[in-house]
Amino acid sequence: MVASNVQIALRIRALSAEELLSVPARLQKNVLSTSPFAPNQVIVQGERKQVFSFDNVFAPEVSQKEIYDRVVMNMIDKVIEGYNVTILSYGHASSGKSHTLGISDGVSYTRESKGIIPRAMSTLISYINSAQYKKRKYSMRISFVEINDEKIIDLLSEDNDKIKPQILIRDESNGQILWSGLQEIKVNSLEEAINILSRGMLNRQINTSRLNDRSSHRHTIFSVTLSQQKFIPVNGDSVNSSNLSPSMLSSKQFSGSKEINKQYEGDWVTVTSKLHFVDLSWKDMDKDIPKSIILPISHVISNLGKKTEEVSETPRSISNAQNCPPILKEYLGGNAKVLVISCVSPAAFQVKETINTLEFATQARNNKDTTVIHQEIGWYNVEHLQDLVLKLRAEVKTLQENGTNSLNTPVNEKQRRRSSILANILVNSNILQNEKDSTNLDDKISLASLDLPKILEGETLNQGLGPIIEEYEKSILSLENQLSHVRAALAYSENALHLQEDKLKDTEETNKQNMHTINDLKNHIAKLNERKETTEIEEIESRDDMVAELGKKIENLVDEITYLKETQTSDSTNSTNSFTEQVISKEVILESKVTITGKEEESEVSNAELLVAIQKLHKRLAKFEEEAMQNQQLIDTLEATLIENEDSLIAANKKLSILQNREDGLLKQIKALNSRVEEANDETENAKSDLFSAKQTMERTLVEERKSKENLKFQLKEARNEVENKKAEILLVKQEEKKIKEKAEMSRITLENELERLLSKKKKFGCF
Ligand SMILES: Nc1ncnc2c1ncn2[C@@H]1O[C@H](COP(=O)(O)OP(=O)(O)OP(=O)(O)O)[C@@H](O)[C@H]1O
């Protein structure tokens, strides 16, 4: 069977409440996205867009339970089956590794948020106690260590252990890892297991504060060693190998230990399997940091999926924790089942670390794709078949040596060759059975079928089918790659289309708002215009009235002044003249009268009258003079008012010109606003048509991509059908092989009978 023993999952954690409070909103932006069309892919929007693929991708909302049920539960089944299992969480600091494993805070096996370790312990112990496994004897031991830059710390040793034994790890030549000085505590119940886990975690916390968290990388390993004893009755037959788990069959191929105690009625088989939980933790995961820190991590990840013998020794020289590499061999090499959970944060402020983690995971994923594990047993176990063939050969050889030369016949040689070919056919057909199809497999298979008799005559199937298998694998890989590329491209296009649609909606919304604003502005401008016009008309009218009034006033004043002046001049000249003349004439009359008085008595009365008249005339003169002064004052006041009014007229004119300027400015603003509105309208129309054509292009691309996806699906389906056909053909070949095998078996029996006959003949001859 061909299978991958490494699964790589990705877990994206949610932002913590603390991050939501302390990290600026701009840096909290989510840079990771998943798509329902490609559930195993994650898209990173860093400096550029990158797509990464995994076996499983868990979004932030996926619960601890769901992760456990989907990827961990079946690993626990494997532990019970006898496999070594390693569950490894890795990622940058605070990415959720410990939380995922269940060792970040107080452990409880009842809480819903509990992590993988408490859940796994619960499953293991319920298996052990279940009726199905009651007939087996179990023992379970737990160890808990931390490996930091400096050393290995046993997290289960009591604090008051004054003299702690030094922990040493030995890499045995048979691939086994031996720990010494490490406490392994036996547990019988879930409560005991959880108590031990809690104790270790407490010590871990104490260590963290003691070390002041200075170490650059600190890995925590919680290990469970499960020993299962199963009684297998012999009943005269050999142990039925198909009942045994892989680790019982070969300590080289499976790292569980083998111990068979033969008893009277059967065998007690002990199978030891190990379950490791590894929290690979390091700080400042960055490409710029010294290689000595980053290499051990990249080494672990890049060696995932490789067979034990392929795991390089490099980290020995680069890590202070000299014992680290052998541990990795046990955990990651050979047939160990490995689940890697890469933990990342979705936030923009950790995008660099996230990309590093994703790149490491991709590297590990690429390695695992080349890993092939053969688990066949019985007739489908290659080693078993080869052993059998070797055994048969040895038997025949012994017979040949012990028997007569007549045994070395062409029939015997043919039998040997057939056995060898049979083994090869079985190996190759097993591989083929589990492979998928290749595009031109048909021709090659038919060629191979033509060659089959030749192959049966001596050529191995490896030569005939090897290239077909290779090509077939390549085609399947390339088809799957193509499909995943198309899926990624489709997801990308759909994302882009959604983005464009969102953009279009946003632009339409903005347009609507702009239109509203433009309409509002237009209304506002119209109102302003209206108001301005009425105000201006009113102002101009009132100004005109004022000006007319002022003009009238001025005219009146001028008239009045002229009149007054004229009046004053004529009055004063006339009246003064007449008055003076009157006075003078009266004085002359008086004088003449006085002169005459001496001559005539009657003239004395008229003199007195004349004096009175002169006095009256003087009074009138004074009155005239006073009036003239008053008139002069009035003229002065009127002149001052005239000047004032002229000033007001100038100010009013100035105000008028300012208002006219303002009006011009407003008109200009209105014009500018109108042209801006027109420009915005044009831009909106252009953007609309651009978006519309972009949308149409995207839709066309999407349709084309969908078509090509359908085509690929169709091709894949056809390829799968062909695989099915090939499988059927292979089944036929296998049936043929079975017949050959039966024939071979019969030949062997005949051979044995012949041998027996010959031996008895020999005995007979010996007797003679
Ligand atoms: N999926 C998750 N859901 C809720 N909280 C989480 C999740 N992942 C991590 N946290 C929380 O985020 C914090 C950091 O997680 P955790 O300690 O597991 O990170 P870490 O990768 O082990 O860090 P370090 O390498 O520094 O030990 C913890 O308080 C943990 O409870």
From TrEMBL:
Gene3D superfamilies: Kinesin motor domain (3.40.850.10). Keywords: ATP-binding, Coiled coil, Cytoplasm, Motor protein, Nucleotide-binding. GO terms for biological process: microtubule-based movement; mitotic spindle organization; spindle elongation. It holds the Pfam family Kinesin. Its main location: cytoplasm. SMART domains: KISc (SM00129). GO terms for molecular function: ATP binding; microtubule binding; microtubule motor activity. It is found in: Cytoplasm. GO terms for cellular component: cytoplasm; microtubule associated complex. The keyword tRNA-binding does not apply. InterPro entries: Kinesin-like_fam, Kinesin_motor_dom, Kinesin_motor_dom_sf, P-loop_NTPase. ATP binds at residues 91-98. Residues 5-367 form the Kinesin motor domain. Belongs to the TRAFAC class myosin-kinesin ATPase superfamily. Kinesin family. This is 7773_t:CDS:1. It comes from Diversispora eburnea. The lineage of its organism: Eukaryota, Fungi, Fungi incertae sedis, Mucoromycota, Glomeromycotina.
